[in-house]
Amino acid sequence: MKTLTARLLTTALAIGFAGEALAVEWNVSVWGKRRAFTEHVEKLAELVSEKTGGEFTMNVSYGGLSKNRENLDGISIGAFEMAQFCAGYHADKNRAITVLELPFIGTANLEEEVAVSHAVYGHPAVVEEMAQWNAKMLMTSPMPQYNIVGTGEPRDELADFDGMRVRATGGLGKAFSAVGGVPTSVTATEAYQAMDSGVVDTVAFAQHAHLAFGTINQADWWTANLNPGTVNCPVVVNIDAYESLSDEHRAALDSSVDEAIAHYLANYGTLLERWDSVLAEKGVTKVEISDAELAKFREAAGKPIHDAWLADMSAQGLPAQELYDLVYKTLEDVRAGN
Question: What is the widest separation between alpha-carbon atoms in the chain?
Fold first, then answer.
């Protein structure tokens, strides 16, 4: 009887330890607060937990694990398993994906932004560059075209941008610089203070960020149709953590990406539908830039910046033309499919 009891106890302990071994907990580093920009990360965590019966969980931390400019570094050393970052925060570390931040690429909606981003993420040059940081691209954080808010008289002509201090990163910063603006690449979490203290005159954000970071609360006006481009913010996972997952857990993660993106798109669509009412509620004037002024902006900040990017990245040994062509080929394919 004693022997049988001992065997049963051993078996029970073994099962318990096996159950423990199966449990996986990932830390996820994002910043700010929960908002439209992070909804796919939250949904991914929810889906993965559901699909694995709670065996694979994710703790989403809003700034508690790392500063937003240091998330890729944190991934590289395994400080956490998943993180979100924006290419413009450290363009030298993620050169290949900066093709997605070129001004006036012309993506018309979030669905196109997803398709183009994921196509570029799958390019061998991107995979190789990210692997240098022990990072694997998982999904994008699609955002609509950026537009600017400001105080005082609306800046509705290109001449008004001369000397304008604008919070803009990456290719957007280059676009404003091309027409005389003075870009400042403060992070999203610093934008409100930069505007409040007069460090910048205007802030370029997508709609959700103007809301989330409070810049809309200081604004007198918002450009409805400047649409110079957007920024690209991937969600990445640590390669070692990803490869150490069981087949079941890895399948749960991979199969949840499309569902998480679909949730993000639906949620963001709701925000865009009520944007006009947000402007009215806060007393912000919607400014329409004339076609003539927009044409001047594109001429100054479109092809010249694209050509400079192609020359610079090619000189650094990247397949710049391939990446550039992939963007437009993907857009063509998506539109043909629609």
Answer: 92
Whether the Cβ atoms of residue 72 and residue 92 lie closer than 8 Å to each other: no
Q: What amino acid is encoded at 303 in this protein?
A: K
CB of 267 closer than 8 Å to CB of 110: no
Other CB atoms within 10 Å distance of the CB of residue 286: 15
Angle at 82 between CA 130 and CA 142, to 5 degrees: 75
Give the helix/strand (H/E) hosting 224: none
Residues with Cβ within 8 Å of residue 39, at least 6 apart in sequence: 263, 264, 267, 268
pLDDT in tens, 22-31: 799 999 999 9
Return the amino acid letter for 38: T
What pTM, to 2 d.p., does this model score? 0.88
The residue among 46, 50, 20 whose CA lies nearest residue 34 is 46
Provide the pLDDT for residue 5: 46
Contacts of 76 (CB under 8 A, 6+ apart): 133, 134, 135
Contact 217, 282 (CB under 8 A): yes
Residue 185's pLDDT is 84
**β-bridge mates for residue 321, sequence order:** none
Q: What is the DSSP string of 129-186?
A: HHHTTTEEEEEE------EEEESSS---SGGGGTT-EEE--HHHHHHHHHTT-EEE--
